Amino acid sequence: AQKVTQAQTEISVVEKEDVTLDCVYETRDTTYYLFWYKQPPSGELVFLIRRNSFDEQNEISGRYSWNFQKSTSSFNFTITASQVVDSAVYFCALNSNQAGTALIFGKGTTLSVSS
Amino acid sequence: EPEVTQTPSHQVTQMGQEVILRCVPISNHLYFYWYRQILGQKVEFLVSFYNNEISEKSEIFDDQFSVERPDGSNFTLKIRSTKLEDSAMYFCASSVTIYEQYFGPGTRLTVT
Fold this sequence. Notes:
Radius of gyration of chain B: 13 Å
Order of helices and strands of chain A: EEEEEEEEEEEE
Oligomer: heterodimer
Structural class of chain A: mainly beta
Strand content of chain B: over 45%
Distance between the termini of chain A: 41 Å
């Protein structure tokens, strides 16, 4: 079965704090893709990153970084020096051969950054 | 930068009415999708469309739903007889391959 678990429902931080959003996935496929999407209050889904199962290198993009660990089936997302504009719901998602063309989303983590 | 567009942004309809949600995918994309998000819940896959036919559909996508690509640019989702539980945000997405799907801004459907 394909499943994505985001155990943190809501996180509140103060600006400039670092925050890590957790994502744990389940799949029996050896080839799969993991994604993070951001949903700001305006409602759209913004693609942030895609990572395939063969590439365990961590990635950094500005204040964002991602830690992919196959051993623990986790794909965590860290925002460094958070800003108010980072306030949004963040979704982790999985795609694999079993899932076909569908993205399987987690329930999302609501991040609130206050000034 | 090319983007997926959706119209209308908000649709209010009465139970039992038919609605058509419209999407214009990114022009060179080959795969098209519809997802829905009930308020406060996760995003759920409805259907994918490739080469002018449905590739896959979820259990949610029952006989009340249909999709169409009536011309070279539009991709529509029709709900034949809306129910209260169809109230949700509906997202269209498109992609070149099945990976890295780009989402539109969504249509909020309210069924009264």
